[in-house]
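User: I'm writing a tutorial on reading structure tokens. Could you give me a worked example: one chain, its sequence, then its tokens, then a sentence or two explaining what the tokens reveal?
Assistant: Sure. Here is the example chain.
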Amino acid sequence: MDGDAVLCQVLTDYLQGQGFGVTVAHDGETGLLQVSQGVYDLVIVDDRLPRLGGIEVLRRVRRQGELPVVILSAGNDDIERIVGLELGADDYLSKSCNLRELVARLNSILRRTRLALAAERMRSSGIESLNLVPSQRTAIWRGEPLPLTSTEFDLLEALFRRPGRAVRKAELAKTVLGREIQHYERSLDMHISNLRKKLGKLADGRSPILTVRGTGYQLLRK
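And here are its predicted structure tokens:
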């Protein structure tokens, strides 16, 4: 999130060249809406965002969970930097920092948080028999590796991140398929159908993946 369109384009081009997927917002309110509706690994925030400042964005992201947040600052105010770190920012960098350093720091944060997330998911997945190890793109179902296509794994992971909550089809299509879903398109439904076949039924006869009519799909909790 950054109000400087030129800097956003520079960062986007560089990060995409390093293999990152990038979504841009030019103000804090839009950025928070994107965070709440999408699935992201990390947020970069300008400390001088229009409409909603970077520190306030950080506060609100922290209320929602532990999504990593890196703050970029145009100034050298030690107090603001300390406040940002105290509020839970994972890093606080100058906008003039070397881009290679920025990428190195992002990768370091992502490695650390992915390990923590993997461990947390092993403990708190919605269904005890299902574990995901994202770093290895592996799903363990009832103690055995689950043979999944790349798309099926991405889809299961998107549901796995929010057990017990409906995830909209439009969001799944954008996150998993990388595009908007067409009105009569059935490709997402077919991937869900294949996942259900591989998962089978729970002891009570239900599928682990529910259809939420008019919304999307939901991975059951315990």
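What the tokens reveal: The CA atoms of residues 70 and 106 lie 8 Å apart. The domain at 5-115 is CATH 3.40.50.2300 (Rossmann fold).
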